[in-house]
């Protein structure tokens, strides 16, 4: 097992998310092997790697979405803001307010734009109708979607384009004010223009929250991420500042992957 | 839509072609230096003309290499060692272009030695400098092609020899000018030639530095010859 | 050569549909033809009798059927949807669940007369309710229950799991996700479940006969505690009388029954379409 060069991780003094020795099994199959990783606060960390390397599993461990999968078991520590999310007395429901997740394929509810945004808010807060209006507008503005939907808040969310739907899902997550935003290949179902809009959005959002993005598109990782982690077969192979990883990677495996010599 | 494997192939082919072109560029430069000095020693105008043609060829090839590099960057978004190889190629084509120019300048000087049929004495140091310089350029391009950062790091040492030879020529020619063994005009030309060769050697050192970056990703600091000598002294 | 085989298949399939449509047409046609002389609004408002076909009607039967269907829906829908939701969303995949699921599926295949016997023994006699509407509705509830469960399960299965994931990722509990997103999204399917339940309840004859529905009722039932007659039973009753004179009356009853079924279906389909368009 390789260990990432200590210097970069050591520079991250107050990580928003940190895992130590995290291992995850699906039944008997081990998907993640003793991964130590720190995500810097208010920065974007990308996790790259070939299919099946465990990056999505890692991501979903952070907000305990893996709990919903039968036979999924984990060992090790995973801390968000210093608190072990798998510790006793931790409520996954409250965790998921703090840690949002955007899925690969946009999944708006088959309801109006407004109701999509209101759902999360009404789950966690007691909001008057005027409060709710304010929150909905703020979240849509934050997601750079307000101007496009302000006249059709009561129309079905399914009538939006793919890129708009994904931004709607982001707005929906933003409405409950998360501190960490997890994104699982958020642009893989979108065209380049929509992708660019979401990457710009990520650039703005990171001022206010920590973002972890799983992507199979290395150029995207290079464009948006401050730090990049490369995983292979469940292990963390290398972790570094993005510009260093893409200019002179330390591990040959990393170099071979990012130069496309295997994928 | 090309698959990842095809893209790799397209990039690999592009990089191979780039390597070949770089090797050709180096060959042309070395040939230019050799012919230029040879033409000067024998005061052969025809050879001087050949050098002018070589300089044009070098320039054209350099432009093509530049275009290839930009294409590869635009189309393939290369990273890591591929990226470093391309940016290094871009930079050292400039060095080779300069080398070609200096060779041309030496040939211009050859053409200016019109009246006399021979030099005032047998030229010794200048051909010696040319040999060393060509050796350096050769070493540099080999380091590039072999991705050998160790040999590349040795170039500054040879450059020191070239520099001392240049000092030597300078002092010699000044002495000869002072005792009128050679005209001021001719003397100045010889000093210029020596200077050009010394500059060519410097460019070879530059190329070596870029090769070190290409292989290791590190940029070595520049150490003055005097300081290097200090390190060597016990 | 392949094209001929191709066309031969198409012709065969069309023939199949043709037979089905033709059968339906003949059936409906003959019923209408037989009922024609007797069709009038009197059928709806008159009570039944066994003496004069020209004054016989279905008043009590219509009301009885409406009571039965209403109560059956009232009982079976919540029970069935709840059971279906449990099986589809909450139950694990172990042996118990598979047994439960098998039980439901098998229940759907039980001959309806058996439900009648069950109803007779349990509701009419053991619980002492007697042959009243409530007993009939309870019996029909058991009969209709497995269909509601299965249709509910299918409706829930049709809701993409991405919606559940989205709700959970926003911090909903499982129940919140089901109640507020999944079930609403499954509403078209659940409506289908209701239509199916209503249609079965309306059309079942054997169980009601076994329970003790009346053949002749000259008063309208006031409530669930009253004895009853239902449309299919009444039709059967008229069909036991000489066909020559009473055949038309029986056929007319079929027309009424089919008409009610038809309108139920239309209403449900329209409601479903409107919901799908304007639900949000």
Which of globular, elongated, flat, extended, rod-shaped describes the shape of chain B?
A: flat
Q: Structural class of the secondary structure composition of chain B?
A: mainly alpha
CATH architecture field of the largest domain in chain C: Orthogonal Bundle
E-strand count of chain C = 0
Rounded to an integer in angstroms, the radius of gyration calculated over CA atoms of chain C is 22 Å
Task: Report the average pLDDT across residues of chain C.
Answer: 88
The CATH class of the largest domain in chain C: Mainly Alpha
Question: Strand-and-helix sequence of chain C, N→C?
Answer: HHHHHHHHHHHH
Strand content of chain B: under 5%
What is the helix fraction of residues of chain B, given as a range?
over 70%
Model description:
The complex is a heterotrimer of chains A (263), B (234) and C (280). Chain A contains 11 helices and 10 strands. Chain A has 263 residues and is of the alpha/beta class. Chain A has a domain at 6-104 and 180-258: Rossmann fold (3-Layer(aba) Sandwich), CATH 3.40.50. In chain A, the strands form 2 sheets. Chain A has a 6-stranded mixed β-sheet with strand order 6-7-8-3-9-10, with helices on both faces. The mean pLDDT of chain A is 92. Chain B has a single domain, classed as Up-down Bundle (Methane Monooxygenase Hydroxylase, Chain G, domain 1). Chain B starts with a helix and ends with a helix. In chain B, α2 (45-76) packs antiparallel against α3 (80-112). Chain B is built from 8 helices and no strands. Chain C has 280 residues and is mainly alpha-helical. The chains are: A alpha/beta (263), B mainly alpha (234), C mainly alpha (280). The A-B interface holds A 218-219, 222, 246-249, 255, 258-261, 263 and B 4, 7-8, 11, 77-84, 216-217.
Note the topology.
The complex is a heterotrimer of chains A (263), B (234) and C (280).
Chain A: H1 6-11, E1 17-26, E2 29-39, E3 44-48, H2 55-62, E4 72-80, E5 83-84, H3 92-98, E6 99-102, H4 113-124, H5 129-142, H6 146-149, H7 162-174, E7 180-184, H8 192-205, E8 210-214, H9 218-224, E9 227-232, E10 235-241, H10 242-247, H11 252-258
Parallel strand pairs in A: 3-8, 3-9, 6-7, 7-8
Antiparallel strand pairs in A: 1-2, 1-4, 4-5, 9-10
Chain B: H1 4-42, H2 45-76, H3 80-112, H4 125-146, H5 149-152, H6 155-178, H7 184-216, H8 225-232
Helix pairs in contact in B: 1-2, 1-3, 1-4, 2-3, 3-7, 4-6, 4-7, 6-7
Chain C: H1 2-35, H2 42-45, H3 59-90, H4 95-108, H5 112-126, H6 133-157, H7 161-169, H8 174-185, H9 187-203, H10 206-211, H11 231-239, H12 243-278
């Amino acid at each position: 097992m390789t260990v990432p060069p200590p210097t970069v991780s050591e520079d991250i003094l107050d990580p928003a998310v940190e895992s130590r020795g995290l291992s995850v099994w699906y039944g008997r199959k081990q998907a993640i092997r003793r991964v130590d990783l720190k995500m810097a606060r208010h920065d974007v960390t990308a996790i790259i790697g070939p299919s099946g390397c465990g990056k999505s599993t890692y991501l979903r461990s952070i907000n305990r979405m893996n709990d919903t999968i039968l036979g999924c078991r984990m060992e090790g520590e995973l801390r968000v803001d210093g608190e072990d999310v798998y510790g006793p007395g931790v409520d996954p429901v409250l965790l998921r307010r703090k840690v949002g997740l955007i899925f690969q394929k946009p999944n708006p509810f088959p309801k109006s734009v407004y109701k999509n945004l209101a759902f999360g808010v009404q789950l966690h807060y007691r909001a008057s109708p005027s409060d709710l209006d304010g929150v909905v507008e703020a979240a849509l503005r934050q997601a750079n979607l307000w101007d496009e939907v302000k006249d059709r808040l009561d129309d079905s969310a399914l009538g939006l384009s793919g890129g708009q739907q994904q931004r709607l899902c982001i707005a929906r997550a933003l409405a409950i004010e998360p501190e960490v935003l997890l994104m699982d290949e958020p642009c893989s179902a979108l065209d380049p223009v929509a992708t660019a809009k979401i990457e710009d959005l990520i650039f703005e959002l990171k001022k206010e929250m920590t973002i972890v993005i799983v992507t199979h598109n290395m150029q995207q990782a290079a464009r948006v991420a401050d730090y990049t982690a490369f995983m292979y077969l469940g292990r963390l192979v290398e972790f570094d500042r993005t510009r260093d990883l893409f200019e002179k990677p330390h591990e040959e495996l990393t170099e071979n992957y990012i130069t496309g010599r295997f994928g | 839509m090309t698959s990842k494997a095809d893209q790799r192939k397209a990039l690999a082919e592009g990089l191979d072609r780039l390597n070949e072109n770089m090797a050709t560029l180096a060959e042309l430069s070395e040939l230019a230096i050799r012919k230029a000095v040879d033409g000067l020693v024998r005061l052969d105008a025809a050879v001087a003309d050949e050098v002018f043609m070589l300089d044009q060829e070098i320039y054209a090839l350099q432009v093509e290499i530049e275009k290839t590099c930009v294409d590869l960057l635009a189309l393939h978004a290369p990273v890591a060692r591929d990226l470093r190889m391309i940016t290094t190629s871009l930079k050292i084509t400039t060095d080779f272009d300069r080398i070609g120019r200096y060779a041309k300048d030496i040939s211009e000087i050859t053409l200016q030695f019109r009246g006399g049929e021979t030099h005032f004495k047998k030229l010794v140091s200048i051909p010696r400098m040319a040999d060393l310089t060509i050796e350096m350029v050769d070493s540099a391009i080999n380091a590039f092609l072999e991705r050998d950062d160790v040999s590349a790091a040795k170039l500054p040492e040879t450059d020191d020899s070239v520099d001392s030879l240049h000092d030597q020529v300078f002092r010699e020619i000044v002495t000869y000018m002072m005792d009128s063994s050679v005209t001021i005009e001719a003397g100045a030309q010889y000093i210029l030639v020596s200077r050009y060769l010394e500059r060519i050697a410097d460019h070879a050192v530059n190329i070596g530095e870029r090769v070190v970056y290409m292989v290791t990703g590190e940029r070595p600091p520049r150490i003055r010859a005097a300081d290097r000598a200090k390190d060597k002294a016990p | 050569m392949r094209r001929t085989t191709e066309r031969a298949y198409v012709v065969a399939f069309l023939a199949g549909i043709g037979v089905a449509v033709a059968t339906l047409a003949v059936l409906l046609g003959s019923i209408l033809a037989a009922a024609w002389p007797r069709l009038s609004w009197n059928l709806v408002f008159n009570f039944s009798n066994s003496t004069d076909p020209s004054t016989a009607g279905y008043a009590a039967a219509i009301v009885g059927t409406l009571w039965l269907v209403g109560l059956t829906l009232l009982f079976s829908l919540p029970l069935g949807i709840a059971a279906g939701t449990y099986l589809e969303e909450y139950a694990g995949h172990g042996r118990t669940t598979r047994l439960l699921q098998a039980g439901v599926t098998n229940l759907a295949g039980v001959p309806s007369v058996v439900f009648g016997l069950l109803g007779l023994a349990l509701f009419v006699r053991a619980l002492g309710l007697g042959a009243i509407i409530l007993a009939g509705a309870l019996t029909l509830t058991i009969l209709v229950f497995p269909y509601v469960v299965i249709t509910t399960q299918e409706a829930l299965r049709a809701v993409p799991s991405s919606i559940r994931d989205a709700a959970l990722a926003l911090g909903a509990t499982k129940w919140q996700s089901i109640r507020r997103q999944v079930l609403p999204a499954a509403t078209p399917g659940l409506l289908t479940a209701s239509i199916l339940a209503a249609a079965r309840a309306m059309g079942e004859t054997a169980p009601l006969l076994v329970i003790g529905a009346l053949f002749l009722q000259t008063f309208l039932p006031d409530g669930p505690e009253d004895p009853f007659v239902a449309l299919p039973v009444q039709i059967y009753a008229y069909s036991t009388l000489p066909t020559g004179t009473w055949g038309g009356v029986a056929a007319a009853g079929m027309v009424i029954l089919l008409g009610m079924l038809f309108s139920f279906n239309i209403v449900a389909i329209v409601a479903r379409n409107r919901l799908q368009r304007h639900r949000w």
